[in-house]
Each structure stands twice: as C-alpha cells, then as structure tokens.
Q: What sequence folds into this?
C-alpha cells in the first residue's frame, strides 16, 4: 500500500493548487479525481468554457453591430458557425486540462483516476479501472459543487438544462428561458442573446445579482436590457414542464398573478450545491452539515484533525480563486506555517460585457452595519479610452470610511472590470485610503483612470474629468 503525506480528493482549482503547494513544500502528494480529466468544474464545464463562448459571441456581436462604425466593412452576410464555436471551446478546455497534467508531472504528484472514499481517517479507497487503497497522513477534501435545482423541476438535460448542458448545445435556442438572475444565468444568457436567441431571465429576488452592490445590479440590468435581454424580477417559478421541443415555465409575480413563459430551452441556474456524495465522510469522522457542506474551523480543519476541506464544499462564496487561496492555506498549515486569508478581500466577478467586479463591502452592508462612509463614483463614458473603444457603459464606485478615508469597498462595471479589480484588492490589502489611490499616477488613456477619478470623488469630491 502506498503511503502519502497528503492526499487531495478533487482536482478543481482548489484541489490541484493545494496538491502543487503541498509538493512544493516537500510533501509526498496524491491527487484523486473521479473523472478522466483534471481541472474540476471550472476548467471542464464552468469558468473556462463559459469564457470561451463569451469571447466568441462577443466577437460576433462586434462584427455584426460595431465594425461598421470602426470603418470595417464586410461584404456578404456574417453568420455563426455554432459547431466551430463549440469545437473551439472544447479545444481550449482540452489545452487547459492538459496543462494541469503537465503541472502534476512537473511537481511529481501521483494522480489516481477514480472515486475516492474514506475507509477511515487515514485510508482512502479509490474505485477506478481497478480498486485500490492508499494511506494518507493528511487529506484535503476538494470535491467542489454541482448545479442546484428546485424540487419540482425534472432536469432532462436535453431541453431543461443546467450550465453543463448549456455549454455544449447542438443549436442556438430560439427562446432560452433562464431561471435565476445570478452570475451563471446572466453570462450564458448573454452568450445566446448575442447569437440571436430571445432570452428571458426570471429572478425570484427584486433585482439581479442580489449579492452585489445594488448600483451594479441596476446598471447591469439596464445595459443587458439594451442588448435585448428581458427580465422578470420578483417572480417565483412554480412549474416547469416539457412537451416535445417546447418548455413551459410558470411563475407567480409579486401581485400573485401567474405568468407563463414558453421556450425551446430552459436553463436552470439557481445556484450550486456542495458535492459530498460518495465520500463516506462519516467513516473518517468528518461532519457534513444540513446544507451539505463539510464543517470546518477557521483553519479549514474538519472534525477529523488530519482532514481539511476547501472550496465550494465548505462555507463561503463559490469562487475558483477563493478555492485556490484555501488550497494554499491548508498546504502551508500542514507544513507548519501560519498563513491567513482575508475573505473580505476576495473579489467577485461577472464576465458579461460590460464586466462586473467588486471587492469589500457593498453600500447596503455598510448601512446595515451602521458604518459611516463616503462614496465617489465616476462614469466610464467620461474616459477618453472608453470613447475610443466604444465601451462607454458603466462606472467605478469607491466606498471609504467617513473619518479615516480607508477604502471599504470598490464596485466596478465596465470594460475590463475583471482585471481592474486587482488594483482595488491590492490597495485594500495594504489598507490604503481613497486619497492614496487619488495621488497615484495612472497611465493615460486607460480604463484604470476611472479608479483614480472615483478615488478623487470619494476623497474631496473633485474628479478631474467630470
């Protein structure tokens, strides 16, 4: 029987990064993955393939709607080769997952393909092509999450689908009904809207992206409405039925009126749930709570002292980069180091166009906590770079402490917001004030200038270009 210092169950961003860090720290490491490819949800059926389709559909939209204004004329009809778009997405996924294979070899991590389950706290059974058992002094559970649903919805994965199936459709829907106005529903809804589908988003809450700052939610919905996406807020879905190639979705609005939607596809994107089935966690003394999450302490240690859990399977936001940070933290703790994570400074991003990104506290959270704050906001349309690229939607909003000027939250909607948010994370990590950013030189012309201008607005209400 092979004996390892650490075994990692699950090869998503949290799992494979944890394995790499353990190996870097000199530990003999095993990685167990039940599927044939490494990378988990993010690389195979999540972040990477969805961004591939978002980029491809964005190129198509630019070609059909914006090239002419740039002086680019294309003779003949521009058309979508949807099969090629899906094939390119698959090629990107394959290239990325092979990159993980390379990293495992480079770091001398032994990979086991098969379902890993606990025999006890130090022994793991792996059922793949053959059944085998390994011994691990420490184990990291990184089994991730899977798409959630509603109790009355029968997912047939043909017409009533999750994000997994939405990434590999054989045709562009005529009418895609999206249940859920969160990140996944909006991103995939925008993909298919660009490609010509009618898209209806049904959201139970009174706004989309309920966890984001309300100003971002309002602006994103306004922009996506201009793009042709239809929104139905404060609608509770209570029936989803399929008849042939038609899907009927029934919802009740805030007045109690029943509203019916008919489409050829229905995307159920009502969140994700932890994936712990098959782990046999109780055999190792690992406690699972009523929400299906692995119970952990502040060091991500489970109720079994030598077993840890990270990523979507534990509390907190279900974000790939959060899982990565947790994977590194656990590896370093096992090695006797004392790392930490400030969860308040883990950014959240929506990869629609315009992109949406945020870090720190929202205005609603500060009000609820009774924190005195000031804010500065600057519109993208006032930037020379935004006008040059015709990406003028959105704004940057900075929230700072009313007395100390320390930055408490940064909220961005606009071109390249996903990249711009890193400046805010860096500033907040060093507990910068709004004035600190306002006094930093930002290259011109860039989208990043909006952050400087918003900081000026927050500090002395004196943006230079507004």
A:
């Amino acid at each position: 029987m092979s004996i390892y210092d650490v075994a990692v169950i699950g090869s998503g961003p949290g799992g494979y990064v944890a394995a790499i860090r353990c190996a870097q720290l000199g530990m003999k490491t095993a990685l167990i993955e039940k599927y044939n490819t490494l990378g988990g949800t993010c690389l195979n059926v999540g972040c990477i393939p969805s961004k591939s389709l978002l980029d491809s559909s964005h190129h198509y939209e630019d070609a059909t709607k914006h090239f002419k204004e740039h002086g680019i004329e294309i003779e003949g009809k521009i058309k979508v080769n949807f099969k090629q778009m899906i094939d390119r997405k698959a090629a990107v996924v394959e290239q990325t997952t092979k990159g993980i294979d390379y990293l495992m070899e480079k770091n001398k991590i032994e990979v086991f393909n098969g379902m890993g389950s606990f025999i006890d706290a130090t022994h793991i059974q792996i059922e793949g092509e053959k059944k085998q058992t390994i011994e691990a002094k420490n184990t990291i559970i990184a089994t991730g999450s899977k798409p959630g649903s509603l109790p009355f919805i029968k997912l047939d994965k043909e017409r009533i689908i999750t994000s997994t199936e939405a990434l590999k459709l054989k045709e562009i829907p005529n009418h895609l009904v999206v249940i859920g106005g969160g990140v996944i529903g909006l991103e995939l809804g925008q993909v298919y809207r660009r490609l010509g589908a009618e898209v209806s988003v049904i959201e139970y809450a009174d706004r989309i992206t309920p966890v984001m700052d309300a100003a971002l939610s309002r602006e994103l919905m306004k922009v996506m409405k201009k793009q042709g996406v239809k929104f139905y807020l404060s609608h509770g879905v209570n029936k989803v039925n399929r008849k042939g190639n038609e899907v009927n979705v029934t919802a009740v609005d805030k007045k109690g009126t029943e509203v019916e939607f008919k489409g050829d596809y229905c995307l159920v994107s009502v969140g994700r749930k932890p994936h712990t089935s098959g782990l046999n966690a109780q055999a190792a003394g690992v406690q699972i709570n009523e929400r299906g999450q692995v119970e952990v302490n502040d060091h991500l240690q489970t109720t079994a002292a030598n077993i840890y859990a990270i990523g979507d399977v534990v509390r907190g936001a279900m974000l790939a980069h959060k899982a990565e940070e947790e994977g590194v933290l656990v590896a370093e703790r096992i090695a006797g180091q004392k790392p930490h994570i400030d969860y308040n400074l883990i950014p959240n991003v929506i990869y629609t166009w315009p992109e949406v990104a945020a870090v720190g506290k929202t205005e609603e959270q500060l009000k609820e906590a009774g924190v005195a704050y000031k804010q500065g906001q600057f519109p993208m349309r006032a930037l020379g770079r935004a006008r040059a690229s015709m990406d003028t939607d959105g704004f940057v909003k900075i929230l700072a402490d009313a007395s100390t000027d320390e930055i408490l939250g940064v909220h961005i909607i606009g071109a390249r917001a996903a990249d711009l948010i890193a400046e805010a994370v860096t500033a907040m990590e060093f507990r910068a004030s709004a004035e600190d950013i306002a006094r930093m030189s930002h290259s011109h012309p860039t989208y990043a200038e909006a952050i400087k201008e918003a900081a000026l607005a927050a500090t002395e209400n004196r943006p230079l270009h507004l």
Summary: The mean pLDDT is 97. The longest strand covers residues 131-141.
